[in-house]
Every structure is written in C-alpha cells, then in structure tokens.
C-alpha cells in the first residue's frame, strides 16, 4: 500500500471498502505524520490521538469503513465546539475550556463515521489572513515554511496541504476558507450563506460566517460539503432546503466540457479595471485559467461590478461591528479564563482585566473599531452606510448573474507572503481579502481552485455563483482541475521525494 | 470624538482619549502602550473604511442579512437542557450549583 497520507479521500474510500487497508491504519498513518511534522508545521492546536484510534477501531469493528465517509480522518478548525475536546477559537480567553456540546457540523461528521484527528490552529476568533493572530503558535506553509499558510483557517490549510489530514473544515467570514486554500494549493469552498449550519460555530460576524470544506481535490471537497450541509433547526438562519448536489456537479465538471456556460471576468477584481496590489504572476495564472475555461467551451466575457471597489471598507465596518457585539459574551463569568478576581475588584473591573489579558491585539482593535462604528452620532456614517454599500454589492451580483452563470477572479491578489511581513500593518493584512469579500457580503457561494504556481507558490482561481448554485462552483472547479492534470499538492510530494 | 464625520473631509482622527473611552465602553482594559499603538493603527483603518461614504447610496435600503428570512419559528417542544454540572464544570468559578461572580454593586450602592 502506498503512503496512506498521500491518497485523496476518494481513493481512501476505495481502499477501505476493498479491505486493502483499515480505518485504524489510515488514522495511524496520519497521526504518525502529525507526530513527525507538526512540531515544525504548527497546524494543530489539539490532537485527539487516542480517541481517534478508538473511533477508527469502532468503525473497523462495525464493518462500515469505506461506506460514505466512514473511517476517513478529518480535522476541524478550532472555531467549532466539540464536546469534551478543548476548543479555543485561537484565543487565550478560552484556554482550557472543554465545550459541553458539539457543533452540528461536528456531530454530522461524527455520525457519518469520520474520525476526528484534532483541532486546527487559526487567527484568534477567525480575525486575520495569516494565522499569525493565533494566541498559541505559528503555522507554516508546507510549500515554504518561512511563509504564512493564509488565514484565518491556516491550521486547516497547512494540515491538508502538508498531508496531516485528508481534508478539513474551515470557516469563511471574508475569505478565511478561500484565501488559505489558494495560498497552499487546495480547493476551498465557502457555501451559500445559510446552507451549512452555524450552530456551535463560535461567532465572529454572524451575518457573514459560514463553514465549508478544504481538500486537495474538488471531489474530496464536495464529499465533505455534502456531509455537513443541509437544514438545521438549531440555526435560525439556516435555509430550509435540500442538501446541494455538489458531488454530482464535481463529477460532471471533471468531464471537462463547459459548453454553453457563460463566465464573467470581474473587471474590478483582476480584470482590466484591477487596481494595484496584484502580483504579476497571479494575474498571469488567472489569465491562463480563463483561457482554459474558454478552451473547455465556456463563453467568457468581461463584467463590471463597480460597487466591489467598496467591499473592503464596507466589510471592515460590518464585521468589526458584529464582532464587538458577539465577543461581549467573553467576559470571564461562565466559561474560559477569569483574571483579577481577588475579592477587591467588582465585576466590571474583572471583566475588563479578563478581556485585556484574554484577547490579542487584532481582536481588541476590531472590538474598538466596531464599538466606534456603532456609536450614537457615527452609526449612520459608518455602519449604516456600510450596510447600504452591501446592498449595492448584492445588486451588482444580481445584474451580473442576469448575463452570466458564474463570475471568476483571482482568489488572493498575491501568493503567500513571508511570516511577519504584515503583522504590524492591519491595512496590508486586510488587503489579502480584496477578492473574497464581495461574495461574503452578498452571501453567495464561492470556491477557490488551484490554477498553477507563481514564484513556486500556489495561485487560486475564484469561481462565484448565485445563492444556492454552489453546484456551478464545483462544476467549473472540477473542469479546471481536470485540465491542469494532477492535484497541485502532488507537486509537494515530488519535491519531498 | 468631537468632530462629525463628513464625506468630504473623511474620518475624524481617533486619539488616545477616544480609544480609551471606546475601550471602556467595550469593557476592555488597555495598557498605555496599546493606546499609543492602537491610536495610530486605528486612525489609518478608519481613514480606509470611511471610503464607504463615497458611495452614492442615499435612498438605498441597507442590507443587514444576505438571506431574507423573517420570523423563523419552531414548534414549542420541551427538550432537555445541558446538564447543570457539565456546564458549571467549564466555569471559572461555581458555588452551590450556580456561577460565582465578583461583586456586582459598589460599596456605596
């Protein structure tokens, strides 16, 4: 049997179903690799080794391994609460907390027979694009260990690209699945807002947060997506609809025929009207990817979405405003750490000290900015105006989707940057989200699929579709993947060999 | 925060005192060093986000939520709550089956 950590999920399923390997062997192979690699890579915050081997043993004993996702290991971003398993959201303020319940998506994966390997590192409360805002450790990009793995789901991206997990869940508020996927050579999909449950997902910006899959192939991402999707009565923003048929879409797309598909290149995002800040290599790979779509039969045209130029300022008002409200629950009274409760201080002082020591700088900056944007006298000029811009962005999407089936852009304007390069410059960090923010604000689905290398580092193509048309993202991504040959991450194996 | 924001002149500067006031509103103790650092960084961020005022959006309806959902109701069925001991086990301090919290009223109240 070849190295089990090198196989895509689809091949692991076949090997498990045929009895060629067992869930315990697959799990052990990944735990062994975590043991040797993760000290340096820093993908995980907590590894559930014993529980994973026990769970894998149960699956083998039940004889279900290889049926659906039974017996396949998975990693979860530490933003998902998991009963009895430490969950921190990358923050010191939740150090040592073991949640009393599990997120719906974690329960669904457990019920599907997957084996939880552990919880992955992230920017604190999912605020960041490099995972450097984690309170716990630095995560390195498997392509170049001196570079960032993207963020905020950078632990998940490093784990999957580095073969420390076959696939993983991330969350995306402004690009936190798509950007880390792009800079590590993975497929990452942000589902339509409301189509995957947010119950048990530690909230950052509730009108934007969405969980989704990160994997080395489009089909693996689709398999994970279908396992977590669908209505959840425990999430009142959950859309009451069928599970989206993305596996079938990935299968169809892999045939490589996009005849009749109308594709719009967004002028404002990497098209003719793109502003500064894009790597030349990224724009070159993007142009080549668009040419691939055309060669596959797609009808490509340019589309203008002028309001997208204001997505970044609108997002950095809306998200911090919602965060300043959501993060009020971390006050050291009911869970997490408490600081300064020595009998001499009242509750307000203890809360303020707990939050001072429990939160890192980026979280504090966003709470302060959000508090400002929501203040009397400033509300209309900032938060209110940002919500109107959000409407304008949605209108641009609607108008564009009248004429095309999907919109495309680069996922990230640059390749992965060196660790430390942007930590003290919040605006430079925010610029990484330039292309991913519009889909977040409009709640529409968007996927990132690898489309080549620039300076030896991965570049991602973003495909956006109308709400609940996630299948189109998978179809186009699968066609791109098929046209380019083997998954991009296979080149990491060649390098290591 | 004495000056009103205007579309033409951009955002008012955020000084140390403004940051300290906002931090107090958010129950966030901040160090002197943080006040200095945040004042500069948040000033630059505020200048950038004030760009939303460039949009011609006078009569545009604001979007609070990407999916139009209203009055999501569930059947009123009693389901078990989380076990009390399990919840209290995660609390920083508990006493007599309750969360124990610091003094809420000041000496004079």
Distance between the termini of chain A: 17 Å
Query: What best-fitting shape of chain B do the alpha-carbon axes yield?
Result: flat
Low-confidence stretches of chain B: 1-9
Helix % of chain A is 40-55%
- Give the overall average pLDDT of chain B: 86
- What's the helix count of chain A? 17
**Helix/strand structural class of chain A:** alpha/beta
CATH architecture of chain A: Alpha-Beta Complex
CATH class of the domain at 1-56 in chain B: Mainly Alpha
Largest sheet of chain A: 11 strands, mixed
- SSE ordering of chain A: HHEHEHEHEHEEHHEHEHHHHEHHEEHH
Q: Any low-confidence stretches of chain A, pLDDT <50, length ≥5?
A: none
Q: What oligomeric state best describes the polypeptide chains here?
A: heterodimer
Protein name (chain A): Glutamyl-tRNA(Gln) amidotransferase subunit A
Subunit structure (chain A): Heterotrimer of A, B and C subunits.
Family (chain A): Belongs to the amidase family. GatA subfamily.
EC number (chain A): 6.3.5.7
Can you walk through the features of this model?
Chain A is 40% helix and 13% strand. Chain A has a single domain (4-263, 405-496), classed as Amidase signature (AS) domain (Amidase signature (AS) enzymes, Alpha-Beta Complex), CATH 3.90.1300.10. Chain A contains 17 helices and 11 strands. Chain A has helices at 9-17, 23-41, 49-62, 104-111, 154-161, 178-184, 218-228, 246-254, 280-295, 311-326, 347-358, 361-373, 380-403, 426-430, 437-442, 470-484, 490-496, and strands at residues 44-47, 73-77, 115-120, 167-172, 187-190, 210-215, 262-266, 299-303, 406-410, 446-454, 457-464. Chain A starts with 8 loop residues before the first helix and ends with a helix. Chain B has 3 helices and 2 strands; from the N terminus they run H-H-H-E-E. Chain B has a two-stranded antiparallel ribbon with strand order 1-2. Classes of the chains: A alpha/beta (497), B mainly alpha (109). Chains A and B meet through helix 10, helix 11, helix 12, helix 13 and helix 14 of A and helix 1, helix 2 and helix 3 of B.
């Amino acid at each position: 049997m070849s190295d089990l950590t090198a196989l895509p999920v689809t091949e692991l399923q076949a090997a498990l179903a045929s009895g060629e390997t067992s869930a315990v062997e697959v799990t052990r192979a990944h735990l062994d690799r975590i043991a040797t690699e993760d000290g340096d890579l820093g993908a995980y915050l907590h590894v559930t080794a014993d529980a994973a081997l026990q769970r894998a043993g149960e699956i083998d004993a039940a004889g279900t391994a290889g049926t659906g996702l039974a017996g396949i290991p998975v990693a979860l971003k530490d933003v998902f609460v998991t009963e009895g398993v430490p969950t921190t959201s990358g923050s010191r303020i939740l150090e040592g907390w073991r949640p009393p319940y599990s997120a719906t998506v974690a329960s669904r994966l457990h019920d599907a027979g997957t084996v939880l390997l552990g919880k992955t590192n992230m920017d604190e409360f999912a605020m960041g694009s490099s995972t450097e805002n984690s309170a716990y450790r630095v995560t390195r990009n498997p392509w170049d260990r001196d570079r960032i793995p993207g963020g905020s789901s950078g632990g998940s991206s490093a784990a999957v690209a580095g073969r420390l997990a076959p696939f993983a869940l991330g969350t995306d508020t402004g690009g936190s699945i798509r950007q880390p996927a792009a800079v590590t050579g993975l497929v990452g999909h942000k589902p339509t807002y409301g189509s995957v449950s947010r119950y048990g997902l530690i909230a950052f910006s509730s009108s934007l947060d969405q969980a989704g899959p990160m994997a080395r192939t489009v089909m693996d991402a689709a398999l994970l997506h279908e396992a977590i999707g669908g209505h959840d009565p425990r999430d009142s923003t959950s859309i009451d609809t069928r599970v989206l048929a993305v596996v079938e879409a990935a299968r169809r797309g892999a045939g490589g025929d996009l005849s009749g598909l109308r594709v719009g290149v967004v002028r404002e995002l990497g098209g003719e009207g793109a502003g500064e800040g894009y790597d030349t290599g990224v724009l070159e790979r993007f142009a080549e990817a668009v040419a691939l779509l055309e060669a596959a039969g797609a009808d490509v045209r340019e589309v203008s979405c002028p309001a997208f130029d204001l997505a970044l300022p609108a997002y950095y008002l809306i998200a911090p405003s919602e965060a300043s409200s959501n993060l009020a629950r971390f006050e050291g009274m009911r869970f997490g750490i408490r600081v300064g409760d020595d009998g001499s201080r009242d509750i307000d002082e203890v809360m303020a000290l707990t939050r001072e020591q429990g939160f890192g700088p980026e979280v504090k900056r966003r709470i302060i900015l959000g508090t400002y944007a929501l203040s009397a006298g400033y509300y209309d000029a900032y938060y209110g105006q940002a919500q109107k811009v959000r409407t304008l962005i949605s209108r641009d999407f609607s108008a564009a989707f009248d004429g095309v089936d999907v919109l495309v852009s680069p996922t990230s304007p640059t390749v992965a940057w060196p660790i430390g390069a942007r930590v003290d410059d919040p605006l430079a960090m925010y610029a990484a989200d330039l292309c991913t923010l519009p889909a977040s604000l409009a709640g529409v689905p968007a996927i990132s699929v690898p489309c080549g290398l620039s300076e030896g580092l991965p570049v991602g193509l973003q495909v956006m579709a109308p709400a609940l048309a996630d299948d189109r993202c998978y179809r186009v991504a699968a066609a791109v993947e098929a046209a380019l040959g083997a998954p991009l991450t296979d080149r990491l194996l060649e390098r290591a060999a | 925060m004495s000056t009103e924001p205007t579309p033409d002149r951009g955002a008012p500067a955020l000084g140390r005192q403004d940051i300290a006031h906002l931090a107090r509103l958010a129950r966030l103790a901040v160090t002197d060093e943080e006040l200095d650092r945040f004042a500069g960084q948040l000033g630059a961020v505020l200048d950038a986000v004030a760009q939303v005022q460039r949009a011609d959006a006078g009569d545009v309806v604001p979007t609070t939520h990407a999916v139009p959902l209203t009055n999501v109701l569930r059947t009123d069925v009693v389901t078990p709550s989380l076990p009390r001991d399990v919840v209290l086990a995660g609390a920083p301090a508990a006493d007599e089956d309750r969360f124990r919290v610091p003094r809420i009223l000041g000496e004079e109240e």
